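Subject: Sanity check before I submit

Could someone independently write out the structure tokens for this chain? I want to compare against mine line by line before I put it in a report. The sequence has 371 residues.
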Amino acid sequence: MRVTIIGGGILGTAHAVEAVSRGHQVVHLEREAEARGASVRNFGLVWVSGRSTGELEAALRSRELWEKLAADIPGIGFRPSGSITLLRTPAELAVAHEAAEGADACHRGFTLLEPGEVRALNPALRGEFLGGLHCALDAAVESRQALPALRDYLSATGRYEFVPGVEARGVDNRTVRDDHGNRYEADLVLVCAGAAHGGLVRELAGNLPVRRVRLQMMQTEPLGETLTTAIADADSFRYYPAFAGAALDTLRTNEAQHPVAEAAHMQLLCVQRLHGGLTIGDTHEYDEPFGFDVHEPPYDYLVNVVEEFLGRTLPPIRQRWAGVYSQCVDPHQLVCRAEPEDDVWVITGPGGRGMTLGPAIAEQTADLIGF
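---
Independent answer below. Compare away.
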């Protein structure tokens, strides 16, 4: 079939990979010269550990697909490095213990580590903590280079064309019209427009059950040593559904978050890039209209937490940024799919799970549509 895909982020690109792998011809439209949204403003984490029970199978499948892609496309920078969620209080330790003893702990790759075991696994962690919840199945890719690497691989098949710098303005009878007057006839149209909920998306699908979420992140200069796993703090327990239970209820009741972390709906996630710098975040802002400023208190707070875990001063901050992603209002949905007309689909709303779940979502779409 001829497949036209609108949107050059991780969802659009993952669907292009799936379509080409099934033998179809793909034309891929992106309004920018290069994807600039949440798909490149993230950690690059393939985060299995925190997924809900309903999402876990998809997350494990997606990790498998990323690893298979990496065998052919080393440029995506896949590393099966795992993660450690570091614990600072007895209540946090209790949540980790409950998770490590859960029925699906082996399926998630959970192991509860003593401080010495944490340092043996990740020697860069020389600071203070009571222990760590290790997830052996978490992984990472290089978010800023994965999409170009995937496109280069697709282009080499002869069945893929990337068309940057054009904005899709309309779809009529499976023919996409762009803002240059060009038309792209197809048998199937997939609209993966990310956090752009208006314009063509609203025209095709109306008001979808999605919201936008804004986040702040930063990246350091090279650390000068290897951080062998991604790291998180136990505030992440409050945001990821895998940790729901009596111990988390007790934590929420008895231990308030730091005021800065609570105000900005924060958790610490930190992963080392291939160039040695650390990507650190993040905050969550839900109420629009979003401001255009980035705020210093969350950055200061995150620096202090990472330095506490490392037991050393961080390198200088190289850059800071904000991003916006699209999130399904129903937390039990992986993604929002709408079929406004035959053979035209709008796919959006994976939230902060886009890099984790992108390949699996694309595979599910292909199976659902039957292409």
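---
OP: Matches mine. For the report I'm noting this point. Residues 83 and 230 are 4 Å apart (CA to CA).
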